[in-house]
Amino acid sequence: MTPEVVVVGAGPVGLAVAIGLRLHGHEVVVVDKQAEGTNASRACVIHPRTLEMLDELGATKTLVDRGLPLADFAVRDGDRRLVPVGFGELPTPYPFILMIPQYQTEQVLLARLEELGGSVRRPSTAVGVQQSADGVEVTLDDGEVIRAQYVVAADGMNSVVRELAGIRMPGNTLELSCSLADVRVDGGLPVDEVALYFAPAGLLVVAPLPDGSFRLVAEVSDAPEHPDVAYAQRLLTARGPHKGQPKVTEVVWGSRFRIHERVADEYRAGRVVLAGDAAHTHSPAGGQGMNLGLRDAVTLADALSTALHGDESDLDAYAVNARAEAVRVIGLAHRLTRLANLPKPVRPVRNAVLRLAGMMSKTQQGLAKQLAGFPER
């Protein structure tokens, strides 16, 4: 059967778009350049608003069963809580953040897509996009041409489809880089909260994962490509808690990346529509990236379904509203990053001010709603 939509990219965002389209009864082809799905953890947190929207796809229960729900987040300085943030009182069926490695999220979404009769073609790379009045043609690297009504670019920050469509994605690349390490630790780290350490030496995120390991994310000037136990221990000693003297015993996985703050000029160019990192990228502060992309995906699937029935108004609204939401989220991540990286002499003053502000319930509730994905509730 001829597909109505081609989705380029089988990460969480592309899979979610495809699931939404299948639930609406549409034919969709998903292509991905990787021979297999990713086996790294990468993004590892799903926020309450995202869980609500994934419920529409029939994926949330399985994700929650496989993940680690946490009701608490805290901004810390060593062993001191500067700003406690609780999700337990939020107006949502999912009053927690869910820790789950990205590869497991992809496994759950792929299984759901296959349950609905969909699949992913691998390895297959889009190398050409040609639009006409009545459709779009996507040329693959093996020469095959797929004809459809729309194509979704869900192929990441360096999106080929976005470039082929002529959409610019301006912004900045920060001087800082990020070091990621999933580590096993002997004692000393809380297992019931995600902690954002604003240490004099710099930012460190510590988050427990379902298998008992911990995700460490540190913004540094020069991150190693493969962090080892000694490097992870230095980060934890310099920036993390002091009581309990946590000892890193193993690095399960590690990586590094540069921090980019970019958003596409447009989310739509005719029959090409952007979603996820193909449309926006920013600092990992607050764990917003994949969440924003997944929310893009669910909204876009609904909008595409309406467009396939002849009304593109929802698709136009998606292009405007999703971009506006990306600008808001990028602003939040930017502020957290800038706050974490103030000049060293100022950091003790910053922490003192944060501690005072953190005593106010309004501050705690406001930050909880921002992170959860519904600041307006």
Strand line-up in the sheet with most strands:
6-5-14-15-16-13-17-20
Largest sheet: 8 strands, mixed
Strand residues, percent: 25-35%
Q: Which stretches of 5+ consecutive residues score pLDDT under 50?
A: none
Gyration radius, in Å: 21 Å
Count of DSSP strands = 20
How many alpha or pi helices? 10
Shape: globular
Portion of residues within helices: 25-40%
Order of helices and strands: EHEEHHEEEEHEEEEEHEEEEHEEEEHHHH
Q: Helices and strands: which structural class?
A: alpha+beta
Mean pLDDT: 91
Distance between the termini: 43 Å
Q: Could you characterize the architecture of this molecule?
A:
- With 377 residues, the chain is an alpha+beta fold.
- It has 10 helices and 20 strands.
What labels would you give this structure?
20 strands, single chain, alpha+beta, 34% helix, eight-stranded mixed beta sheet, 377 residues, globular
Task: Give a quick precis of the structure.
The chain is an alpha+beta fold and 377 residues long. It is built from ten helices and 20 strands. The chain has helices at residues 12-23, 48-55, 60-66, 102-115, 160-164, 229-239, 289-308, 313-340, 347-358, 361-372, and strands at 5-8, 28-31, 45-46, 68-70, 72-77, 80-86, 97-99, 120-121, 126-132, 135-140, 145-148, 150-153, 171-186, 193-199, 202-208, 214-220, 247-263, 268-269, 272-274, 280-281.
Q: How does the SSE layout of this entry go?
A:
Blueprint: E1 5-8, H1 12-23, E2 28-31, E3 45-46, H2 48-55, H3 60-66, E4 68-70, E5 72-77, E6 80-86, E7 97-99, H4 102-115, E8 120-121, E9 126-132, E10 135-140, E11 145-148, E12 150-153, H5 160-164, E13 171-186, E14 193-199, E15 202-208, E16 214-220, H6 229-239, E17 247-263, E18 268-269, E19 272-274, E20 280-281, H7 289-308, H8 313-340, H9 347-358, H10 361-372
Parallel strand pairs: 1-2, 1-12, 2-8, 5-14, 12-19
Antiparallel strand pairs: 3-7, 4-7, 5-6, 9-10, 10-11, 13-16, 13-17, 14-15, 15-16, 17-20, 18-19
